Amino acid sequence: MYSLLRIKMICAMWFCMFPELSFRDVNREEQDYCSLFAHALIASSEVRDFFFNKCGIELKGKEVEVCVEPAPLRDYWYALGDPKKHSKATEMARKQVLSQFIEYYQVGLDIDETDFFWTVNTKSSNGKGKLRSPGIWESENIRQAELERLFILKYAFNSKLDIMLLTESHVIFIEAKLESAESSYGVSRLTQTEIQNEIGKLITEFIPAFKPLKYLRFTLGFKAKPDISWHEVHQWVGASPLDQHTKRSFHALCNRYPMK
């Protein structure tokens, strides 16, 4: 039995025209739904309660920060000093942080003697400029130096999380999927799960604001038995006093991907 939505799409194809559907009926952008879910978590105490109960977390305090597409390691590196200016204080701070990472990954390197850590500055006495973020190290240089264990650090600096929540006790990553499968990167084919778990380890090990927090990660999707289903989010939103746009958007999404 075809749904009305499916019949409209078939009719549109028959007459060689776009279907007469609202954008929410065809929207397939994961990040759009992540933003709507983040909005729901911020705006609705009901949705927050549903979410934390599902995750088995007792929410201590009312403060919950919700971030969409954050890159915490990238941004904390930027906070070490203005990347457009060269100062001894900034280089010292970067060097201290990089030294901790080198020790953490048990890589016996001299920072001053490892060229790909630095930008090139022909005016300086040693030809070196500023220490570079691990996120922009060249993969070929890492391979040539036989430092493959540093690839995960590079990807951890580059990676953006779909959603990150911060409470008084936890830092929570949410990896969201609609249709796509889990991605993998580089020759070593590191998965998103491996990279995100590494980010969780690094930020709770090295960043003061995260050290007191417990790291957790959850998947959100339709396929591969996610920790949380978009259908559950739809139900939570539907039972809340949220705006009609958010409710209709999740209704349209779950109408396209019916429960099996």
Percentage of residues assigned to helices: 40-55%
Radius of gyration: 23 Å
Strand order of the largest sheet: 1-4-5-8-9
Order of helices and strands: HHHHEHHEEHHEEEEHEEHH
Low-confidence stretches: none
Report on this structure.
- The protein has 260 residues and is an alpha/beta fold.
- It folds into two domains: 24-70 and 160-183 and 211-256, no CATH class; 74-157, no CATH class.
- It has helices at residues 4-14, 23-26, 30-43, 45-55, 72-78, 88-104, 139-144, 151-158, 192-206, 230-238, 244-256; strands at residues 65-68, 118-120, 128-131, 163-166, 170-176, 184-185, 190-191, 214-221, 228-229.
- A five-stranded mixed β-sheet has the order 1-4-5-8-9. It has a two-stranded antiparallel sheet with strand order 2-3.
- The protein is elongated, with a radius of gyration of 23 Å.
- The model has no long low-confidence stretch (mean pLDDT 91).
Name the features:
260 residues, 9 strands, two-stranded antiparallel ribbon, 2 domains, 14% strand, single chain, alpha/beta, 44% helix
Topology:
Blueprint: H1 4-14, H2 23-26, H3 30-43, H4 45-55, E1 65-68, H5 72-78, H6 88-104, E2 118-120, E3 128-131, H7 139-144, H8 151-158, E4 163-166, E5 170-176, E6 184-185, E7 190-191, H9 192-206, E8 214-221, E9 228-229, H10 230-238, H11 244-256
Parallel strand pairs: 5-8, 8-9
Antiparallel strand pairs: 1-4, 2-3, 4-5, 6-7
Helix pairs in contact: 3-4, 8-9, 10-11
